[in-house]
Amino acid sequence: MTTNGDSGVEAEAKAGSEAESGSEAKADTEAEPEPEDTDAADSGPDPAFDPDPERVAALREVADDVRAETSESKQLANILYRTSDLYDPNEETTPEEIIRNVKFILEVTERGGLER
After folding, report:
1. pTM surpassing 0.90?
2. Each residue of 76-88: b (16+ CB within 10 Å) or e?
3. What's the CA gap between 56 and 52, in Å, rounded?
4. Between the CA of residue 7 and those of 26, 79, 116, what are the distances in Å?
5. Exposed, middle or buried, 62 (CB in 10 Å: 0-12/13-18/19+)?
6. Which of the residues 47, 70, 76, 103 has the least number of beta carbons within 10 Å of its own beta carbon?
7. Nearest to 61 by CA among 75, 76, 74, 80
8. 11, burial (CB in 10 Å: exposed 0-12, middle 13-18, buried 19+)
9. Torsion from C-alpha of 112, 110, 108, 2, nearest 10 degrees
């Protein structure tokens, strides 16, 4: 069994299939370079996430309201609170960091808690 869960046979088959299609994929990428997205790079920070203390307060108030004794309500409250960080001028976070954090919250809950 490989580190990604494939058996040796599956891993070899996967590698062989990738090697066969590799030359075709390489030819495709050389023939047609991907267009550069200059608009996203030049536009700066997303204005949708500008500091907004009212939105922070609203999201955190809802988080406090839904927090209860169940793990699902705690998860939702944590996700809402973490999302509010996007609009908090004292926090430095990105949507990508929040997504990683939410995935971690869900994985910990699925495992039954933090193992120390």
Report:
1. no
2. bbbbbbbbbbbbb
3. 6
4. 27, 36, 30
5. middle
6. 47
7. 80
8. middle
9. 110
Q: Which of 111, 52, 63 shows the shortest CA–CA distance to 87?
A: 52
Going by C-alpha positions, the residue among 79, 81, 28, 87 that lies closest to residue 59 is: 81
Q: Are 88 and 56 in contact (CB under 8 A)?
A: yes
Nearest to 92 by CA among 44, 43, 45, 55: 45
Q: Please answer whether residues 81 and 59 qualify as being in contact, where contact means their C-beta atoms are separated by less than 8 angstroms.
A: yes
Place of tokens 């994929």: 25
C-alpha dihedral sign at 19, 23, 24, 29:
positive
